[in-house]
Amino acid sequence: MRRLVAALAAAVALGVGLTACGESDPVAGTTTGETREITHAMGTTKVPAEPKRVVVLDTDKIDTALSLGVTPVGAATASAARSWPTYFGEDKLAGIKEVGVLTEPDLEAINALKPDLILGSKFRQEKFYDELAAIAPTVFTEKVGITWKENFLLDGNALGKEQQAKDLLAAYETRAREFGAKLGDAASRKVSIVRFMPTEIRVYGPDSFSGIVIGDTGLGRPERQLLTGKEDRRMDRVSPERIGEVDGDVIFVTAYGEKAAAEQAKVTGGTLWKGLSAVKAGKAHVVSDEIWMTGIGVGAANKILDDLEKYLSA
Fold first, then answer.
1. Is residue 10 in some structural domain?
2. What CDD domains does the database record attribute to this sequence (predicted)?
3. Which residue has the higher pLDDT, 144 or 113?
4. Three-state SS letters, the chain
5. Which one of 3, 86, 112, 296 is most buried, by most CB atoms within 10 A?
C-alpha cells in the first residue's frame, strides 16, 4: 500500500512539474495562481493565496479551520475518540471526509481529495511529510498543546486568514482576562483538571492547552498540578490509589474514549473519589474531552470559558 501511495504522490509531483512547464490542463489539487511563502516547522512552502481544498491532520487544525470559516475537505481523527469537534455543530462537519488517524494519515485518501493545502504537525506526522508535500503544499507546526496560540496564527496565515486569526485570538484573550477580573478572587480558586485515559489517569499542568486557558483567566491551580521543577509541565499521572492528589476547590473531569469513560465511572464511584472536598461540595464537573483536551484551538478555548462561566460564576 505504501508503494502504491508513493507512486500516486509521485504522479502528482510530476503533474506539478508539467504544469510549471506550460501544460494547458493543470493537475487538480496542485498550486496554481497567486501564492504566498509560509515558513514553518519543516522549512518554507509556497501555498495558494486562498486555498479552497484543505486537508487537516490534527484536531487543533480542524478547530482552526472552522473558526476561520474554512471547512476542510478531509480531516484525520483522534484514534480513541474517532470524532471531530462536535461543538461546532454537525452541519459544519457533514462534508468532511475521514483521512485516517492523527498518527497514521491515509495518504491514498488524501491524494484522492486533490487538496491544494495540507496542514499537519511535525510532532505527529514528521515521517509522512515528504509524501504529503508531494501531494500538495504542506505546512507543519512544531509542537502541540503548549504552542497552541502560535500554531493557530501560523495555520491562520497558511489559510490566508492571518488578520482574522489575530483578531479571534485577541478577542479570546480579552474575554479570559475580563472573566477572571469579574471573579475578583480568581487566583485563590484552585482549579483541578483530571483526565481519564484508557490505561491511566492524568492531571494537567500549566503548559497544557486547558491549563493555559485556565492561566489566561488568572484562576489558580492546586500545588500538585503546578508541576514545579518538572521538565514537562503539561501533565502528570496519578494512580487510582492516589486519587486524593487531584483535589481542588473545583475539579473538571474528562474521559478520552469509551474505555476511559468506563474507568472514570469505576474510580468516581469509589470511596476515595467521594471523599475529595470538591466532590463533597458538589464542585466536581464532567466536561467534554474534545473541548478541554483535543480541541486545542480558539473555538475550544472559548468553550472552556463557557464552562468556567457556567460553574464558577454562580
1. no
2. FhuD
3. 113
4. CHHHHHHHHHHHHHHHHHHHCCCCCCCCCCCCCCEEEEEECCEEEEEECCCCCEEECCHHHHHHHHHCCCCCCEEEECCCCCCCCHHHCHHHHCCCEEEEECCEECHHHHHHCCCCEEEEEHHHHHHHHHHHHHHCCEEEECCCCCCHHHHHHHHHHHCCCHHHHHHHHHHHHHHHHHHHHHHCCHHHCEEEEEEECCCCEEEECCCCHHHHHHHHHCCECCHHHCCCCCCCCCEEEECHHHHHHHCCCEEEEEECCHHHHHHHHHHHCCHHHHCCHHHHCCCEEECCHHHHCCCCCHHHHHHHHHHHHHHHCC
5. 296
291 within a domain of the structure (yes/no): yes
Which residue range(s) make up the domain with 218?
170-312
**Whether residue 54 is found in the same domain as residue 145:** yes
State pLDDT tens for residues 216-266.
999 999 999 999 999 999 999 999 999 999 999 999 999 998 999 999 999
Residues 41-80: pLDDT tens digits? 999 999 999 999 999 999 899 999 999 999 999 999 877 5
